[in-house]
């Protein structure tokens, strides 16, 4: 299972709506076009429906798969409260963006920083011109924070974490302490998984993650 897949999926949508396969769903909106791995969630859901139908929601599957893939990539293993239906402090927000430590970026999301930043015809001055630092794209660690402190952040949003006075001190802490980052990330993921959760009679447990149930 790819941690790049699940780390994109869960923060994007805690209620599983990004899994819906319709032309007007958020699955097909701009930045989400680069999200991959929907078939993994579908395979897990198919097996669960065969063993215990209508018991485990797609939102829970995403939360649990994300937790497991983070652990397999060397990140923290944390407890997940299940029971979601389908349907943060500064340090927590910074920790969640630290998920960008795993995976690669789509060129369309940062091309303007390379050649024509804000219409200047020049690269983004906050970016290191070389931008070829050694990295660990398949390992969950704090390398991301060292990269953005060295002006090697690919996404503009990431780079701003290192320069904004509201977040720069947190970035420095995480860059210096891998264990601290992992602990804070685990706490933030648990909190994220509890945001706007559907339970009980709210929402539903889909039979297929890519479509609503017939009511």
From TrEMBL:
Q: Which residues bind Ca(2+) 1?
A: 15, 17, 26
The record's PROSITE patterns line, in alphabetical order, gives: PEROXIDASE_4
GO MF terms held by the record:
heme binding; lactoperoxidase activity; metal ion binding
Q: Please list the residues that bind Ca(2+) 2.
A: 101, 136, 141
EC numbers for this chain = 1.11.1.7
Q: Which residues form the Plant heme peroxidase family profile domain?
A: 14-213
Q: Name one Pfam family in it.
A: peroxidase
The answer to whether the entry has keyword Oxidoreductase is: yes
Cofactor(s) it depends on: Ca(2+); heme b
InterPro entries cross-referenced by the UniProt entry: Haem_peroxidase, Haem_peroxidase_sf, Peroxidase_pln
GO biological-process terms attached to the record: hydrogen peroxide catabolic process; response to oxidative stress
Give the highest taxon in the source lineage. Answer: Eukaryota
Keyword presence, DNA repair: no
The record's keywords, sorted A to Z, are: Calcium, Disulfide bond, Heme, Hydrogen peroxide, Iron, Metal-binding, Oxidoreductase, Peroxidase, Secreted, Signal
Q: Which residues bind heme b?
A: 100
Q: Which cysteines are joined by disulfide bonds?
A: 58-209
Q: How is the cofactor bound?
A: Binds 2 calcium ions per subunit.
Reactions it catalyzes: 2 a phenolic donor + H2O2 = 2 a phenolic radical donor + 2 H2O
Protein task: Removal of H(2)O(2), oxidation of toxic reductants, biosynthesis and degradation of lignin, suberization, auxin catabolism, response to environmental stresses such as wounding, pathogen attack and oxidative stress. These functions might be dependent on each isozyme/isoform in each plant tissue.
Give the record's family classification.
Belongs to the peroxidase family.
**What's the name of the protein?**
peroxidase
The record lists the organism as Arabidopsis lyrata subsp. lyrata (Lyre-leaved rock-cress)
